[in-house]
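Worked problem 6 (solution included).
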Amino acid sequence: MVFIQAMSTHHAAILRGGPSINKAMRLIEHLQDGELLPKNITYHRAAWNEYRTTAHLCAAYVYMTQPIINDFHAGKLAPKTVFRELQGAMWHAFDVFLAAAHCFQQFGLAFRLSRTRDIEALLPAERLWLLPHAAQWEPLETKVTPLPADLVALLMQKAATH
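Solution. The predicted structure is:
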């Protein structure tokens, strides 16, 4: 969902067919190393179908923890400390997590999948895991960053259409 929002916010005008679940799946498959999760689009599509109703919560978690993951991959965090850092990010800023999840929920309910001729929302409103009333936390605007140039190039290849 973070990839779809990044495509929608920063790259929609240059992506043939616009942002899509298939394009997000292609990015996920490209970025997987095959160790933690399979490098298999069928696996990821099944996970999306199974957990689509909670995608806004997963996106908020990714959004909040991405700096920690980046630090780990850059060698700034030892493997033994990553879990503690990830846990602390959620424990000490749960209100920020809820605010981010609310932003992704709003995006997912408003964003229309182009393949459905603007009928189907990214998130299924009738089965969505809803958040408590938003007045319980400070408003937050999630600022997803643009995709790196190599990933945009990957999406612009002919095989990446819808």
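Discussion: Residues 2-160 form one domain.
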